[in-house]
Amino acid sequence: MASGEPSKYVTLVSGDGFEFVVLREATKVSPIISGMIDPRSGFAEARDARCVFQEISSPVLDKVVEYFHYWYQYRDNDDVPDMDIPVEICLELLAAADYLGLDQATMNTRQWS
Amino acid sequence: MISGRGGSGARGARIRPPRRIARPNAPAEGADFDACWELLREALRDIHNKNCSRLSFEELYRAAYKIVLKKKGDELYNRVTKFEEEWFAENVIPKIEQLVTRSLVNIGEDRSAATSANERRQTGEKFLKGLRDTWDDHNMSMNMTADILMYLDRGFTQADPNRVSIFATTIALFRDHILQSKLDATSDRSVVDILISVILDQIDMEREGDVIDRTLIRSCSRMLSCLFQNQLENEHEKLYLVLFEPKFIEASEAYYKAECEHLLRQADASSWLRHTERRLGEETDRCGTTIELETLPKVHQTIDNHLIKSHLDEFLALDVTGLRWMIDNDKFNDLSILYRLVSRIDEDKTALKNIVQRRVMELGHEIEKTLKGIDFSMGLAEGEEGGEGDKKPLNPAAQQTAAAIRWVDDVLRLKDKFDAILKECFQEDLVLQAAVSKSFTEFINVFSRCTEYVSLFIDENLKRGIRGKTEAEVDIVLEKAIVLIRYLQDRDLFQTYYQRHLARRLLHNKSESHDVEKQIISRMKQELGQQFTSKFEGMFRDLVTSSELTTGYRDHMNVAGEGEKTIDLNISVLTTNYWPAEVMGRSTQIGAESRVTCTYPREVSRLQASFEQFYLSSRNGRKLTWIGTTGSADVKCVFPAIPGKSGALAKERRYEINVPTFGMVVLLLFNDLEDGASLSFEEIQAKTSISTNDLMRTLTAIAVAPKSRVLAKEPLTKSIKPGDKFTFNNSFLSKTVRIKAPLINAVSKVEDSTERKTTEDKANQSRAHVVDAAIVRIMKSRKELSHAQLVSEVLNVLVGRFKPDVSLIKKRIEDLITREYLERPDEDGAPSMYRYVA
């Protein structure tokens, strides 16, 4: 947990304009969002702590945010309950997961000097 | 982790296909490859210009995402690579080219160029700074680029294991286009070569005492650690390890080699030690702050090899400041450093060990030599009471005692010195401890009188030395004695001497404290085993029984005695085996007189008979032998008033004189004599049948010694000769009532050389038996052994007692063969085999 960061929270915005406020730590599971809000890079998202996902609808982003917190809550546990996934959005959710790089949470191993 | 429940609901939930949210204004929406690339290209440029706060990560990521989804990943990959190459060519390389100046190129090639160190440092630092800044920019940009192109790696690069991630490719551009390029046309050195020589130059400056920008160099070494030899990014092929480290080690080697030779020319081991230790610390520091920590073991090894090992022996052998000098002058600091350094390069510390050992030997021999050089005849040793006279030259025995104490003191002082060095400097290193002990054992045992001297030292301390000391101080003395005993090899000889000295102390009541005597014996028991001290313990037991016997006999006489005048008898019944042969009157075993003989006067014989009766009434089958040489008697003498004299002589004088037993026997002869009558030496001998030597000693005590001259001798010389005549000294006068005649004893305290020879002969004789026993015991359990094995086993078994000569063992084996304990099995033609004959 890097200290001195601007905020403990980031705002995720869905394509249809819904805003979700998420713990910064909880978004670490996604290398994409991590890179996006990394204060060293200085992209617009990092400056405002606000990420807009044009391609993701609010029900899907809602589920994604739920997953973020789910992951954060149980990140050190072994015995983890299942998460409820509505069948209707599962394909969209899969696409979003791919987009956010959730299939390989440990991918970002490059070193910054 | 995520489980759906599709298809199970009764309401028949339908899976929604992914749908797009229409965003008419979004630039990348529905656009083709070119539009997306254009967006990314602009973004890359902005990233390089550090102008990305207006960029939306998500937008860029989405653009790359789309391109990849459209299967144009390879083209994106190539275009990004090409873009970066162009960027390098246009914007970065010119900057670096400016940095690479003529003087900079010279740094690596010719150190001694005209430029001053200061100039060189500034040029170098400028170059390093430029390079570092460029690298920082590039590294930053490439990280950001890789971030927005993350989907490219996931969707395209990782699909084929041979492809290299976009980051590895772009970051490597720095290596290919900058580090490995030759920017200066006149030189064939690439930038990385220059970089390394500049870093090395800076490090050398620091070694010479300059201050350099460590963080700057750290950044550069970090850069080399981040870049790899090739695209496989193998950890072992970091540029730092492949290019920098070997050169660094090489430069360090050269540097330290030169430095070591320089130090050697100065010939000051002390400054060499301090310098080397400082260098080790500096390199640790350097690896922690300036370059990478992984180099530390290697550069330390370089120092070990070139600064320590290469000329170690020369430094140690230096005359004025070398190891010998350090030891002699107690240079504890130097020795500690030396120990630390030597243990770096050699587990066994051979060089250190050898010299320390040699020095111990030398100092040990010196002790012996000075001992020979000192004349002890003038009583210079501490508080030594010179025999009977106060300022007179010491008699030979006292001289020997003084020499013994001097020797022991010197040895102990040497031991203390090396103990201190081992403790303070050598961290109680086991190897060195063993080596020092070995040397002590060696030089102590080379000195032929060591066993006697150690025993004399204990004797002296127990007689006088511990008087008025606290328990703790006594303990220290005991500890010292034990330390010395531990070093002795011929423990059987020591046992003989100790037995003799202990007997003397006990029988003549010379011992200061029986408690301390018992303590030291129990310590010896711990160190050397039960067997070693059993005789000493027996001696103490004898004394206890004797005092019981004495009181028992006195009570018995009080009851049974018919009121007649009795002689007060104090008896010591000694068990033959526990006491030294000399005391027991067996000293001349081989000679003509096998026993000390004496014809006792009537009164005494009656007393002896009465005691024997008392003694044997409770004990069966024992034989008592009376030994006159070790006892003493209190004799009351009455000297008549001499008419015509005034003062004390005019009165009758009564004295109580303590004389040796034989002295009493001789004095009693004069009871029966008329006044003024004399006895000749021969007459006395005939009446008492005391041996000539014993009689001479006895008469010396009572007729020559000035304070107890009860008999007058004719002629009046200092020595007793056959033919002398003795009369009762009527005019004897003494200030005290109780007088003690000096003990002139058969068992002299210190041996002269012939006596020592006999002691050794006797020791050898008993050794033969011990060796016999050892051989038989070993063969009994092993049945068959080769000669070499047997000899080594025998040496092993006897190590705690003495070190037998191999020739002695050989002789004993031969002897045992003739006595048919062993045989040589001939049949298998093994001449050096022995077999036990049951």
CATH hierarchy: architecture of the largest domain in chain B? Up-down Bundle
Could you state the CATH homologous superfamily of chain A?
A: Potassium Channel Kv1.1, Chain A
What is the fold-level CATH name, i.e. the topology of chain A? Potassium Channel Kv1.1, Chain A
Pair of chains with the largest interface and how many residues each contributes: A-B, 43 and 49 residues
- In whole angstroms, the N-to-C terminal distance of chain A is 18 Å
Low-confidence stretches of chain A: 105-113
What would you call the shape of chain A? globular
Please give a structural write-up:
The complex is a heterodimer of chains A (113) and B (838). In chain A, helix 3 (58-73) crosses helix 4 (90-99). Chain A has 113 residues and is of the alpha+beta class. Chain A has helices at 31-37, 44-48, 58-73, 90-99, and strands at residues 9-13, 19-23, 50-52, 83-85. The longest helix of chain A is centred in the middle third of the chain and has 16 residues, at 58-73. Chain A has a single domain (9-99), classed as Potassium Channel Kv1.1, Chain A. The radius of gyration of chain A is 14 Å and the shape is globular. Chain B is mostly helical and 838 residues long. Chain B has helices spanning 33-48, 57-69, 73-99, 102-109, 117-148, 150-155, 166-179, 191-207, 214-226, 239-266, 269-289, 296-309, 312-317, 323-328, 332-345, 350-373, 396-424, 430-446, 450-465, 471-487, 491-507, 514-528, 530-560, 602-618, 661-671, 681-688, 692-704, 753-782, 787-798, 806-818, and strands spanning 2-4, 632-639, 653-660, 678-680, 711-714, 725-728, 738-740, 784-786, 822-823, 833-836. Chain B has a three-stranded mixed sheet. In chain B, helix 16 packs parallel to helix 18. The longest helix of chain B has 32 residues, at 117-148. Mean pLDDT of chain B is 77; it is low at 1-11, 22-30, 379-392 and 587-594. Chains A and B meet through helix 1, helix 2 and helix 4 of A and strand 1, helix 2, helix 5, helix 6 and helix 9 of B. Strand 4 of chain A pairs parallel with strand 1 of chain B. Chain B: This is Cullin. Chain B: Residues 449-703 form the Cullin family profile domain. Chain B: InterPro entries: Cullin, Cullin-like_AB, Cullin_homology, Cullin_homology_sf, Cullin_N, Cullin_neddylation_domain, Cullin_repeat-like_dom_sf, WH-like_DNA-bd_sf. Chain B: Belongs to the cullin family.
